[in-house]
Amino acid sequence: MAPFSASWKPKALADEAAAESAEDELRRLLGDGPVPFPERAEREFKPWHRPRKQYVRSVQWSRELGFLVRDLGLDNELRYLTLPGDDLLDIRYLAESVCTSRGLRLKYLGFNTAAFPSDVRQPELNAAQFSINRLEYINPESEVFPGDFRQIGDTRSVPWQRVRRAGPFHAINLDLCGGFAGREKTEEIPNYFAALQALLQNQGSSDHDFLLFLTTRMDEHSVDKEVRASLNDIVRRVHETCKAYASGFASAWGLPAGGESVRLLERIGFAEAFMLGLTQWIVAQGVTHGLKASVRNFMTYRTGRKNGDDDIVSLAIRFKPDPFIQPDAQGLVRTVGVESSRDEKICEQSAAIPEKVGSRVLVDEILRTQGQDFERCMNEASRLLAAAGYDASTYRDWVLQEANRYAKA
Fold first, then answer.
1. Is the peptide bond before 354 cis (omega within 30 degrees of 0)?
2. Which range marks the domain in which residue 88 is found?
């Protein structure tokens, strides 16, 4: 046998060094043992996760949508425009509570600035949308559009075109954290009034009833002074020109019939005047665009922990198509039959508004005095948040940090 060559030693040492280097690199990347999964970061609960918001979801939104689906005989798809939060809780809840038992699919179009790639909240929103769109009762073509809802008020904008393609809708849910009628921080985009006007214009082509839900702050700090003055003028005008409205107003607040309209708003609270004016404006816009409004209900509650007047209102209005032929200035258009005037329609549709405002649902009062409603809303919200990835085991303790606001279990 031939003797070993002395040249094998450097080569063997080099191979061993290379192997050790590769092993060190692999250890640097993977560590010395199994890598544990990172613990899930705890997600903090938000103000709209409280039972009072769940009461609105279930008793106002879900119930009214259920009535609409029943009356329309829907058996295929429910089209829904929304301003969802990053967790898409309203979409998840309404799809489960309204669509599953009826064999419907929910097709939603949402607007949320978190959908922009540059927004730090985008990963969370994308995860929520991916999870929801995989559900059986959600149309997978549904989407949250990266834009400010107010841009719908610009008919040259991409958001407006997106609404035109997706509508008309069976339900529109404008759930705002801030004020619909607040002072705008910029004049570069339309305001909320313009956006809602454009939406109602678009809904004028609908051949079926639809719902409008609007949630907004209504405290003095959240309502622009000029807007407030305009809304008050709207209320005074309808009070002066519509006897049915004036009668309903007097009845709702126990005032003598025929009271002075100039001072009528001094007899009621700031929030009540705001609800009257905003709703009256919406009804008039509906008439302009060939829609007939039926105000369903108002729900109010208070944010924060301090006592005081309710500062949030959630209103529900159901519209039905009521098209009419617009007269022309030259008088050449001739129609058959007598068409009610615009003022007559507004009067008819507005007469019930004062009574609806006066008998509004005080959500905090219900949850403070009705233990069964409180427990139901807390349990529903807990399940909803768990499905969205929150730690539901800590939810009850978080809610009861404000125990004085709720009925004793």
1. no
2. 56-324+340-362
Nearest CA among 2, 56, 69 for reference residue 208: 69
User: Which three-class secondary structure state does DSSP give residue 46?
Assistant: coil
Q: Both 220 and 355 in a single domain?
A: yes
The lowest-confidence range among 108-117, 209-218, 255-264 is 255-264
Cβ-contact 271, 219 below 8 angstroms: yes
Residue of 208, 262, 255 whose CA lies nearest to 232: 262
Q: What is the total count of domains within the chain?
A: 2
pLDDT at 395 over 80: yes
Residue 184 phi/psi, 5-degree rounding, is -75, 140
Q: What is the pLDDT of residues 179-202, one digit of tens each?
A: 999 988 877 899 999 999 999 999
Q: Is 216 a residue whose pLDDT tops 70?
A: yes
- Position 59 scores a pLDDT of 98
* Within a domain: 64: yes
Q: Is 105 a member of any domain?
A: yes
Contact present, 279 and 295 (Cβ < 8 Å) = yes
